[in-house]
Design brief:
By secondary structure, the chain is an alpha/beta fold. It has helices at residues 19-30, 65-75, 89-101, 111-118, 120-129, 171-177, 231-243, 275-280, 285-293, 323-336, and strands spanning 10-14, 34-39, 52-56, 80-83, 105-106, 137-139, 152-156, 166-168, 184-188, 192-201, 207-218, 221-227, 248-257, 262-268, 310-312. It is globular and about 60 Å long.
Amino acid sequence: MATDQIEPRRILVTGVGANPGFGLARSLTRLGHHVVAADANPLAHGFLLPCVRPQLIPPADDPGYCARLDELCRDLKVDAIVPAIENDLAPLLRMAERLDEAGVHLWLPEPASVHACVDKAAFHQALTEHGVPTPRSWWGDTLDQVPDGTELVVKPRRGHGAQHVHFTDNRRHALLLDELVPEALVQMRLRGVEFTADCLVDRSGRASAILRRRDLVKAGLAVVSTTFHDPVVLDLVLATLRAVRAEGLCCVQGFIQDSGAVTITELNVRVGGGFPLTEAAGADLVGQMVRGLVGLPVDHDALAYRGGMFLTTYVETLAVGNAADLERIVTAEEAAA
């Protein structure tokens, strides 16, 4: 852990209704920071975390999204915003200049880097140009080149959270799914050990990465994970970060195939849902993210970790009650703001 602590900050976390945002909000409160928990769903489970200030916000594509975040930053004296869901990246980038003028910290890569990560076709092109192994992919007018008789994955170019992802070994089925999946991209399906690297890239470009196997995955979430060390995997993760000019907090995913080859599949410009394992293994991921977020140096020595640490996750009922009661709690928080 970091040897020097920073004073508590008021940090707005978006997407607390999903695992990454929920975990990030909880980790920040444990570190002593004051969290404004924001989500577009009035029943977001992150609103029920102790010590957070729940705030309902419009969806990221709503015309009122930016105005609402401006209002929250002003009224609640927010020090920083950390998005934990991809949908919020585009509007926050548009707000970046005025957030900076208002003294609100936002730590995201440059727009071209974000685009290269949220658009899977652009990500494939960036990695291919830099010689980083990534699955063969087809989209748009190249879909007629999809081979038959091989395992395929059909997914949205700009999807997230394993939504609209389909598997098939039939080219005809893949082309039919193109009609159903928004902006479909078809990839060769990989087999082997799936992994995630929780990464933090400081403002000078130096990166640290914590590797964890995704031993059991359900609906895109690693419910059983184990940390490990592998120099080949680490080198490719770092090469991926350089290829897209990543900065700040992010996570890289890929496979160690049965042949031993390592292939990178995606990079998310947000914390990974399984990052609590990274912290349990000794890496001060969120603490160092906050340091970089507010312009302080990142202590990469504090991001060292132990291999062989495991995490298991299960679905738990957090609360049962009248939906109107939770909506009233959120509304009352808004009125008090």
